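Lecture notes, part 5. Sequence design as translation. It can be helpful to think of inverse folding as translation between two languages: the language of shapes and the language of residues. The source text, in structure tokens, appears below.
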């Protein structure tokens, strides 16, 4: 009985497969009708296998559905191909899936202009998940006086929209900046760049973008490099600001060794999602620079662009300014601090031997992070927990051009800078 049912069950393909263009820059409507009404299967479920691609693509994109209409995206510079078949399964087929023959349809817009008139090197970056910047170059056969326009559409817009913020070179549009695209994230963003020139037809460029695959974050912030009691190098940082989801980031860490006067040779250390890293003593004895960058991880995108590097160097007595450095020193050392005019908002530090000092810029202020007891000009000054008033001895021994005192019992020595001069101090017990 079962074999007789299978031989007798033949399913017809769908009918009247059609493709239409609603003018949405590559989003085409595909629809079909079910098999003939006289063929009914009360004990079976009827579904459809819908496949589509552009000519030249190796693989088909596949959708299993009971619907009769879909809107899917194509590259309109190439022919769109679709095919559909009926799938039947249930009691009428002994729960074996029966497939119909395929039906096919194609769609192609009439070609316009020569291929060499299409814009070149079209490139887009989604910066910080806040704005999309796309750039291009005129085609090889582009005449003088050409005018380019960029149009875009995504699900939720009633019609295609033109860019309202163009980037120009020599009076020609060569780029566009689009903002407020959060609704377009994780869906197709169809883009067309076309051009017009007197008496010349130019070929438009069509493409489909996925914003999350074009994301480029800002560089990580607040890079902190310190040395532990075991003389391990501790590296920590914070995710960049903006709309970039922190859980969507991964980071690459590299270090460079002191190469004397030669350029630093960077070595890969780690790619990770965590925002901290410990480098063992054996692997960092000659490290002079650390840098970190980030990009979208595989849990949020298929690909993405690396951010710029956040870099911190601390080689010899060379002054580095990078805005994010904090390095503690763990052994008693002599430290000399040259009071420079505050012209930079970045954090600065010097290194002498095994010791580091952190300079925290503020308007006309410098903080030396030292713990009690502190020697000023060779004489110890114990900083009480409640100290908040100036130390007369410290004031007289350092310079008449500045005031120094402990602040709020934190073990910090605060110096108000009034003129450039030298400050010297030693420490017995350090952080």
């Amino acid at each position: 009985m079962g074999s007789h049912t299978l031989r007798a069950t033949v399913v017809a393909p769908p009918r009247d497969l059609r493709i239409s263009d609603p003018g949405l820059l590559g989003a085409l409507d595909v629809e079909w009708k079910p098999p003939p009404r006289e063929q009914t299967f009360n004990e079976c479920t009827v579904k459809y296998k819908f496949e589509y691609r552009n000519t030249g693509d190796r693989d088909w994109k596949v959708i299993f559905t009971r619907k009769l209409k879909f809107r899917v995206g194509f590259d309109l510079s190439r022919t769109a191909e679709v095919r559909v078949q009926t799938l039947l399964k249930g009691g009428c087929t002994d729960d074996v899936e029966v497939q119909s023959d395929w039906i096919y349809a194609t769609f192609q817009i009439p070609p316009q202009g020569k291929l060499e008139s299409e814009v070149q090197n079209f490139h887009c970056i989604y910066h910080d998940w806040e704005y999309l910047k796309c750039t291009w170059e005129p085609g090889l056969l582009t005449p003088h006086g050409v005018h380019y326009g960029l149009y875009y559409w995504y699900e939720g817009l009633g019609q295609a929209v033109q860019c309202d913020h163009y980037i120009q070179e020599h009076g020609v549009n060569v780029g566009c900046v689009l903002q407020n695209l959060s609704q377009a994230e994780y869906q197709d963003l169809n883009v067309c760049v076309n051009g017009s020139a007197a008496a010349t037809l130019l070929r438009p460029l069509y493409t489909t973008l996925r914003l999350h695959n074009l994301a480029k974050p800002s560089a990580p912030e607040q890079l902190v490099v310190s040395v532990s009691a075991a003389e391990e190098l501790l590296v920590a940082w914070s995710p960049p600001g903006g709309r970039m989801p922190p859980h969507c980031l991964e980071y690459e860490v590299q270090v460079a060794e002191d190469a004397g006067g030669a350029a630093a040779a960077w070595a890969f250390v780690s790619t990770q999602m965590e925002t901290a890293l410990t480098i063992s003593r054996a692997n960092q004895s000659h490290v002079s620079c650390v840098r970190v960058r980030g990009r979208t991880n595989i849990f949020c995108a298929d690909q993405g662009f690396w951010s710029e590097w956040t870099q911190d160097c601390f080689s010899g007595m060379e002054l580095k300014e990078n805005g994010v450095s904090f390095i503690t020193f763990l052994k008693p050392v002599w430290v000399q601090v040259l009071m420079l005019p505050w012209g930079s908002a970045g954090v600065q530090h010097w290194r002498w031997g095994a010791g580091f000092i952190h300079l925290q810029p503020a308007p006309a202020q410098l903080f030396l992070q030292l713990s009690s007891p502190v020697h000023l000009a060779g004489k110890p000054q114990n900083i009480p927990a409640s100290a908040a008033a100036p130390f007369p001895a410290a004031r007289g021994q350092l310079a008449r051009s500045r005031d120094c005192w402990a602040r709020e019992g934190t073990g910090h020595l605060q110096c108000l800078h009034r003129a450039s001069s030298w400050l010297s101090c030693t420490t017995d017990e350090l952080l």
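The translated text above is only one of many valid answers, since several sequences can fold into similar shapes. The longest strand covers residues 44-54.
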